[in-house]
Design brief:
The protein is an alpha/beta fold. The protein has 16 helices and eight strands. Strands 1-2-4-3-5-6-7-8 form an eight-stranded mixed beta sheet.
């Protein structure tokens, strides 16, 4: 995976280091994975973007993959999106890039959005894949959402989540080697087999039901919006489009500029299932909004 990329562990906060890879030259693009994936989910997209003239940076978010797994706190601040956004700002500074585009999928989309909100002077473009701001998701949650996305509430609220998952994490996550690719599958399987990773991922969801929507609501109340150009992208065979109609319309309420849209013909894990379409959509967006 990631031929020609550098692999590193970079300290981003006291006691926290992010593991990941970077490669290419040009404007910086930070790619963030979702749950329960790792930076390896981008193994086909990242090199393709690097070939088109970008420095592509792919970290494991804190708690995921081989990144640090700090002790949780009772208020769930350690794994909230603001803490992760701070990691990404520090990571990009360590790599010598003050300005960068950030693209996130699934849980990574929330972290990418928070990075753009908390560090507007540094984020040159924002891509959000398969999601809307978390406060919007929770405010629209109904019985149908709870039935389809029950794991949000099991992970985020049940005291039994860690015990159940760690009893047999590979059975729980049902990672598909054929769909993921052998190296991506092996890397991610090793990560979820670590009880500390499971604890951290559960904490991510607990923050998502507590801290993260409060941060969104405070920004909305204050009238803060994303300054950077935004691409909203969603999978045709996931339920984001069906649930929200036009997710881009929701994002436009949070953005100072018109939001670009792209639909990828795939299931939820778009970077693995349709890497060509994802690369094409991202490259077209980045070429339109970033100066080389």
């Amino acid at each position: 995976m990631f031929s020609g990329f550098d692999e590193w562990d970079i300290e981003t906060a006291p006691g926290v280091a992010l593991h990941g890879r970077s490669g290419g030259e040009g404007p910086a693009v930070l790619l963030l994975h979702g749950h329960p994936r790792t930076h390896a989910t981008w193994y086909r997209v990242a090199p393709a973007l690097a070939e088109q003239g970008y420095l592509v940076v792919c970290p494991d978010m804190r708690g995921y993959g081989r990144s640090s797994k700090p002790e949780p706190d009772d208020e769930h601040l350690v794994y909230c999106d603001r803490a992760m956004a701070g990691d990404f700002a520090a990571l990009m500074s360590a790599l010598g890039r003050e300005a960068f585009a950030v693209v996130g999928h699934d849980r990574g989309a929330y972290a990418a959005f928070r990075t753009a909100m908390d560090h507007p002077e540094r984020v040159s473009a924002l891509g959000v894949c398969d999601g809307v701001p978390i406060v919007e998701t929770l405010e629209r949650a109904d019985a149908a959402f709870a039935a389809a996305w029950w794991h949000w509430f099991f992970l985020g609220a049940s005291p039994h989540a860690e015990r159940v998952i760690t009893a047999d994490p590979l059975a729980w996550y049902r990672l598909d080697e054929a769909a993921m690719g052998a190296e991506n599958h092996a890397y991610t399987s090793a990560a979820v087999a670590d009880p500390r990773t499971v604890r951290a991922m559960v904490e991510d969801y607990r923050a998502g039901l507590a801290v993260d929507p409060r941060l969104d609501a405070a920004d909305r109340e204050a009238g803060r919006r994303v300054r950077a150009p935004v691409l909203a992208m969603w999978s045709s065979r996931d339920d984001t489009g069906r649930r929200y109609g036009d997710p881009g319309a929701i994002w436009e309420q949070w953005c100072e500029r018109p939001v670009r849209r792209a639909v990828v013909e795939s299931g939820h894990h778009m970077a693995e299932e349709a890497p060509g379409q994802v690369t094409e959509s991202l490259a077209a967006f980045l070429a339109a909004v970033l100066a080389k």
